[in-house]
Design brief:
single chain, about 90 residues, about 0% strand
């Protein structure tokens, strides 16, 4: 794993998740029935949209991991023939 790429991921993920959680907290402020009126259908619509985006984001992460694992698996070993040579040497 590339340490610099992972550090960048962790830094950005931390900031973005905190921003999302803050936004969700702000959204939950709309639940105050002294200030707002809403229907069950409107709430269902909001949470269906959020769930749809979460599922899509998770799918992208899963796909990214699969691609990364495939790239790592296809890295050839040090043998000039792309596989481990058993008992063979080009040196005399």
């Amino acid at each position: 794993m590339d340490k610099n790429k992972n550090e960048k991921f962790q830094r950005l993920a931390q900031a973005r998740v905190e921003k999302l959680l803050k936004s969700i907290g702000t959204l939950s402020n709309l639940s105050n029935t002294y200030t707002y009126e809403y229907s069950n259908g409107e709430i269902d619509h909001i949470f269906a949209a959020l769930q749809e985006e979460l599922v899509a984001a998770r799918s992208k992460f899963d796909s990214g991991l699969a691609k990364l694992e495939a790239r790592q698996a296809s890295v050839p070993d040090s043998s000039p023939f792309g596989r481990k040579a058993r008992g063979f040497s080009l040196a005399s």
